Amino acid sequence: PTTRPSAPAGLLPFAWGTALADRLAAFCRTREVSPAVVLLAALQAVLHRYGDDDRVSVVVPVPVLPPEFTGLVGPCDNLLVLCADLGGAPTFTEVLDRAAAGFRAATEHRELPFDRLVQALPVDRHPDRVPLCDVLLAVPGPEAELRLAGADLRAAAVRDGGPTVADLVVTVRRTWPSVTGTLAYRGDRFEPASAAGLLGQVRTLLSAALDDPDTRLDRLPLDGPPAPEPADDPDSAHLPPVHETIRRHADRTPRAVAVAGADGRWTYGELERRAAALAVHLRALPVDGAPVAVRMAPGPWQLAASLAILRAGGHLVWFGTGDAGERGRAVLTELRPACLLRAGEDPGDELARWFRDDLGGRVLDVTALPETPGPAGPEPTLAGDPGRRTAYVAYTSGSTGRPKGIAQSHRAFAQFATWMAGALELGPGARVAQWVTPEHDPSLCEVFATLVGGGTLHPVPERIRVHPEKLVDWLVRERITFLQTVPSFARELLAVIAAREPADRPALTRLVLMGEALPGQLVNGLRRALPATRLSNIYGPTETIAATWYDITGPVPATVPIGRSIPGRQVLVLDEADRPCPTGVTGEIVVRSPHVCDGYVGAATGHPAFRAPAGQPDGGTGVRWYRTGDLARRRWDGLLEFRGRRDLQVKLLGTRVELADVEAALAAHDGVAECVVVPVTDRDGLVVRLTAYVVPRRRPDGTPVAGVSGWRAHLRRRFGTAMVLVSFETLPDRLPRTVAGKVDRRRLPAPRSASTGRIPTTTVERALAEIWSELLGGERFDAEATFFAAGGHSLLIPQLVHRIRRRFGVTVALRECFTHNTLAGMAALVEAAGAARESSVPAESADLRAVTDAME
What we know:
The protein is of the alpha/beta class. It is built from 21 helices and 30 strands. The longest helix has 20 residues, at 192-211.
C-alpha cells in the first residue's frame, strides 16, 4: 500500500482503548494464545488484502538468551521472518492457527543469526534498508516501573521519526488498561494519512475478528461503511438536447464566432441557418431513428451536417477522412446508415465508393445540396422520449479486439456536454483546438461542449495534428486557450515548449489529458513549462462517455490520480466478489449511472460487462452498471488512483504481477521517455519473463540519459530480485500507437535476447553456452546475452549451478547467478573461482545449498 516517492520518516502513536483491550484479553484466555500472535494474525490479514500474493511475511524480534540471563545481560534479540500462506479464503481462526504454528516453528531456529539467513538467500542489499524486513511487528514484554523520589514520571511519545529498520514498524505495548503503541514508517513509502489509515484498518479487522473469528478473511471489514454516492441524475432529465441548446445560443448571440479555420469562419447564426436547411433535406429521406455517417474533415460543414442529423432525428456517426480500412467497412456493414454525408467530391474516397457501390448506400455531398430555407413553423416533434433517443454511435478503438458500437442517448450527451462546458470553462471567449480525430468519442465531447458553452472551435489542420513543432507554432498563432490530447503526445509537445522562451509558448488556460495513464513526471514538467495553464486528467470508457476527473492544482506524485466521479456517475471499486474494496485496496472500477449505454450495437442483451454486481441496489429506473475491466484503488483523501487493466495481470513464476505497476515504476525513471511492458511465454504458454520496450530520454546532444543497467537497477530497487526477469528492448523514437493514441502492443517488434552480438570466445564461455543450450533449448548465445532474456528463470538457477559444478569443479553461489546473469558474467565467476577447466568429476563442497543429481 505504498504511496510516496520521497519523504522523511514518520511516527504515529496510537491507543486502542480499554474496551478493545478487555476483549483481546478475554479472547486470548479462551483460545489459549498470546496477544502477540493475535496481533500478528490481524496484521498479516490486512497486508494480505493489500497484496497480490497469498504469501505474507512479517518480521518479529525475539529474545535469544535463556531466562536465567535476565537481569545479568542487556536485551539480545534476533529477527525471525514469519511467512504465512493465506490462500484458500481462510477464516480468522485459521489465520490465527497458521500464525501460531508459524511462530512456533520459527522459534525453534531463533538462534540462527538473521544475517546468516540473508547471506544464504539471493536478496538485494541496500544501505538504507534491512533485507527481508518490509514489515516488523514488536510486542515487548511489560516494562519495569521507574521510580524517582519526589518526581512524578510519565512516558511521553516520540513525535519525530528517525530512520526505520523496515518500511513499517508496528510496536504494540500492553499498557493496562489499554493497548497502545507506535507505528513508524518510511516517508518515502507512505504518506501520513495512508500509514494512519492502515493502522486503523488493523484495529477495525481485529475488532470484527474478535466478535466472530470464524468469519472468512475476505469478509472481515477494514473500513467503515462507504459514504453513499448518488448515481441517479434527475436534473439531467430536464436538459434540452445539445442541438436545441446550440440553437438557443445562436438566437441570443448570432454574430458570435462558432468555428474558425482553413475552411472559413462561421458565426453561430450562420451555423444554425445551414444546419436548419440541411435538416430539411434529411427529413425528406427520411433519417429519423437511423444512423447517418459523416465523413468529413473537422470544420464548419462537419458541424452543420452533425447538427442537421440530430435535428432530423438521426443517429450521428463520425468518420475521419483518412483510410478507414477494414474497421470503417465493418462499422458501415453493422450500422447500414441511411446515408453517408461528405463535403465535396473526392474520387479517391474508397470508403464512400465501397458504401455506395458494394453496400448500396446513399452518398450525399452537403455542399451541393440547394440551400433551402428552414421550416416556416416549429420543427416536427420526434416520437418517443427525447432523452432516451439515440444521439450518436461511437466505436471503441478495437486495439484489444473487434470494435464495439456504443449508442449514447440525448440525455447522456447533453448532461456531459453541459458539465464539460461549465467545469472546463468553454464559454464565450474560449478558443478550443479541435485536436481529437473524428472517429473517437472525445472529439464529439470537445466539439459539442464548446458549442453548448458558446466558445469558438479551431479545427487543427491534419498535416500538423501530430507534428509537435508545427502544432505548437499553430497554438501560439491562433491564441488557443484549450487543448485536449493524450499524455504520450503531450510529452512530445512539452519537449518543444520547454525549449522555447516563455514569450513564444502557447497561452493555454486549460490542458486536458485523457485516454492513458498520466505520469507525474510529465505533469510536473508541464506545470513548469506552462505555469499559467490549468491541467486536468479525465478518465472514462466510451460506454460511460467519461467517469472521473481530477483538476491538478499542485505538484503530483509518480502516479497522477484520476480523481473523483463526474456528476451523475457513481464510481465504485469492487473486489472479485462484487464487494466494495477497502481504502487502499485495488479492485475493478465499476460505474453506476443513468448515463451508461444500454449495451453494444448489434449484440445480444445481457453482455457481462453490463451485469449489475450481486447484492448491489439498482438505484431506480434507468440506472445501469458498467464493469470497465480497469483496476484502481481509492486513496485516503478519497481520490481514485488508476492501477492498470485486469487483463494485463500475469503470473510470473507463480506470483501475480500487474504489468501497469512495472510500467509505472519504469516510467518514473529519469532516463525513460515512455515505455510499455509485455509478458513473454515459453512453448507451454507459461510466462517466464517480461520485456520492457523503452524509448530513452535523451540529452540535448542526443545521448541517452540512462540505459539498461540503470533501468534494471531502478526496478530491482522497487520490486527486488524478481526484476532480473525483465529484458529490455530500446526503441529509438516512439512506441507504436493506434489511431486513438493508445499503445498498439500488436505492432511492437518481437523481443530479442539482450545481447551485443559478440560470440563466446573463451573456453569457459563456450562451455557455458553449451550448458545454457541444454537448459534453455537454444542453439546460439552471444557472450552478453542474459540468462533470463534468453528464456531462463529463477527455478532453473539451481540446475545451472549444479551443471557448472559438475563441468568445472567449482561452486558458484545461487545469488551470484542473479547478479552476474550474462554469459560473460557467469564465465567471469567461474574463472574467479579458479577452475577454468573441464571436469566430469563432481567436486566436494561444503555448500549446504548445492544441488545434487537427485534433486535436479
